[in-house]
Amino acid sequence: MTTKKINILKFATIIGSLLLILGSAAYGSSRGGSFLPQRNGSIVKDTVIHPIENNVSLGDKIVSFGMTLLGTPYVEAGSGKNGFDCSGFVYFVYNHFKIQVPRSSSEFKNFGKEIPIANVKKGDILLFLSPTRKVIGHIGIVTNPKGMESDFIHSSSGREMKVIVTSLKKPGYTRRFVKAIRVL
């Protein structure tokens, strides 16, 4: 066999190995893990490695998941994809990440750790008075932390009657704002 043919075979072998590794990695990542080549050339399935996702905070993931529910109708006492009330929305989103939170907005009064509004992060929860009574009657999840100008996602029983993003600087919410809490 000529040197040229041997080099072509070596090249083909290397390319074939790379394709096998890349194909295995793609297959593994689509199945919740990855296949990584070891020093001896064997391929071993390892634990789940998603370097980009690992740089995303849990708060970011909560907000991203909540945003997939934008437009879902407001339904009194609702806590599923067919419709939510405000606490049902927060409950559903947090439950998706296996985080236990109360089901009723009034139960958030003594739940979590109160934090200054200036220190809120994505995924923190804002508590508001009811429009008609002096009790916690509405809650939402911070999406864009900016102190008293933070944006939050919530299931609105107002004019919109659906899951929306609203700014805390909106007078109706500024006036009713009680506190921010962290449960993460």
Automatic annotation (TrEMBL):
Database matches in Pfam families: NLPC_P60
Segments forming domain NlpC/P60: 56-184
InterPro entries associated with the record: NLP_P60_dom (IPR000064), Papain-like_cys_pep_sf (IPR038765), Peptidase_C40 (IPR051202)
PROSITE patterns: NLPC_P60
Keywords associated with the record: Hydrolase, Protease, Thiol protease
Domain of life the protein comes from: Bacteria
Gene3D superfamilies (UniProt xref): endopeptidase domain like (from Nostoc punctiforme)
Recorded family membership: Belongs to the peptidase C40 family.
PANTHER family assigned: MUREIN DD-ENDOPEPTIDASE MEPH-RELATED
Record-given protein name: C40 family peptidase
Native organism: Flavobacterium xylosi
Source taxonomy: Bacteria, Pseudomonadati, Bacteroidota, Flavobacteriia, Flavobacteriales
